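Severity: low
Component: inverse-folding endpoint
Summary: output formatting inconsistent between runs
Steps to reproduce: submit the following structure tokens with default settings.
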């Protein structure tokens, strides 16, 4: 029996939130220690972080299809099909992880020239990024295996693994950056090596937990078989999720290029502000995973009407939490940015970013919930289409015009981000109400 109560939604969502908090600690640890080394180091690693986030979102090429197929088959009680879908997804994740590692190493210098940052910031960013790339195969693998657990209704295991990864990273960062226990100081790249080692630790651990997973009884032989029809099914769903995943951070990369026109302090302020806004999306990542999992299982069990119930409950939970988070961002905006930097200009710009963008977070609630329903059903085209227009037509277009045609200032870029989020939330929810996702085949 699939439980659609508030209690079960929170039960599924909460471990994801905790796991994301641990992952955020990993990011906070990097930003905190790197910021102590200087503004150029903070800016260079920030540019690198944007590129690496672009790589992370490519995992949706596989994870979107994994979630839809595994959750649907679990709902149908078709364990063999669920295991087949999961095993082929894992093989795809390893393949794509290696491909993106190689492509990243080849194109790193060319991509960083796009930002037109100072020579020192560019050099720091390239060195940091090239080290981080070694974590790509492990990162792809960990995220897709996490999707398997979550689609089967186990959100605790990925939480435990991400917590362990974050602990490893936090412990390694200061040692690798500043030296200790016989290790020479590696500077800013030490933080990147800390992340690589943490990802390796997480990948090994989560594979071990998958082997011991009782709900879906995996055997080593499942990974020796290549099933191209199943891979095709996974990719048919995932291609649109991957394009969406690529489009959003790519627009952020272009946006960061526009922000760099306003100086290194603006880049740093944006990076620090994003760290705090991510608190909002941590909560909604939990809601997204819970709802997409339940949607897939409910559709597999032919309980279509119950999807409307969990959608409404997800919206209610989201709006309640949004009130508290938006209040927090307004009241403590300057204090939050000052944790990362004492530079007056950075604190001012970062505080303005938090206040302006937080206003739009109320309408980001239907955005996340609607996207979760589409993902759970395997209908990944609507989120991609709406996201593309909102991020490129509105966010990048408005920011570019306000910077190069009508030089209003960096505040206009923060406003462009808020308008794009608002548009995306409203339009995607209206598209959800059309209901065509109900009959989607996976």
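Observed output (run 2 of 3):
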């Amino acid at each position: 029996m699939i439980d659609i109560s508030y209690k079960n939604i929170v039960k599924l969502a909460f471990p994801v939130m905790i796991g994301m908090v641990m992952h955020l600690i990993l990011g906070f640890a990097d930003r905190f220690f790197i910021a102590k080394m200087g503004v150029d180091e903070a800016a260079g690693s920030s540019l690198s972080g944007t590129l690496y986030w672009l790589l992370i979102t490519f995992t949706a090429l596989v994870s979107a299809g994994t979630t839809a197929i595994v959750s649907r088959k679990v709902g149908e009680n078709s364990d063999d099909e669920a295991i087949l879908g999961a095993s082929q997804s894992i093989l795809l994740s390893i393949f794509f992880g290696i491909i993106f590692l190689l492509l990243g190493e080849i194109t790193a210098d060319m991509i960083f020239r796009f930002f037109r940052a100072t020579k020192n910031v560019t050099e720091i960013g390239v060195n940091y990024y090239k080290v981080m790339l070694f974590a790509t195969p492990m990162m792809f693998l960990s995220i897709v295996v996490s999707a398997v657990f979550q689609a089967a209704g186990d959100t605790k295991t990925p939480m435990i693994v991400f917590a362990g990864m974050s602990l490893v990273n936090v412990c390694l960062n200061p040692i690798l950056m500043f030296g200790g226990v016989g290790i020479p100081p590696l500077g800013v790249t030490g933080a990147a090596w800390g992340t690589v080692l943490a990802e390796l630790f997480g990948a090994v651990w989560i594979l071990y937990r998958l082997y011991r997973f009782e709900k879906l009884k995996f055997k080593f032989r499942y990974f020796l078989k290549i099933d191209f029809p199943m891979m095709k099914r996974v990719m048919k769903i995932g291609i649109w999720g991957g394009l969406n995943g690529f489009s959003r951070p790519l627009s952020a990369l272009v946006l960061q290029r526009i922000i760099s026109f306003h100086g290194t302090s603006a880049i740093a302020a944006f990076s620090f502000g994003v760290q705090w806004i991510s608190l909002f999306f941590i909560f909604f990542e939990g809601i997204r995973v819970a709802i997409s999992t339940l949607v897939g299982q409910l559709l597999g069990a032919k309980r279509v009407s119950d999807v409307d119930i969990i959608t409404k409950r997800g919206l209610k939970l989201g709006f309640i939490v949004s009130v508290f988070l938006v209040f927090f961002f307004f009241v403590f905006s300057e204090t939050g940015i000052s944790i990362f930097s004492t530079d007056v200009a950075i604190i001012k710009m970062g505080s303005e970013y938090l206040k302006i963008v937080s206003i739009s977070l109320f309408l980001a609630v239907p955005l996340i919930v609607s996207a979760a329903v589409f993902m759970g059903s395997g209908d990944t085209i609507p989120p991609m289409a709406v996201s593309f227009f909102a991020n490129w037509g509105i966010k990048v277009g408005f920011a570019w015009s306000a910077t190069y045609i009508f030089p209003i200032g960096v505040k206009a870029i923060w406003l462009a981000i808020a308008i794009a989020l608002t548009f995306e939330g409203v339009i995607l929810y209206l598209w959800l109400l059309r209901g065509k996702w109900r009959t989607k085949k996976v």
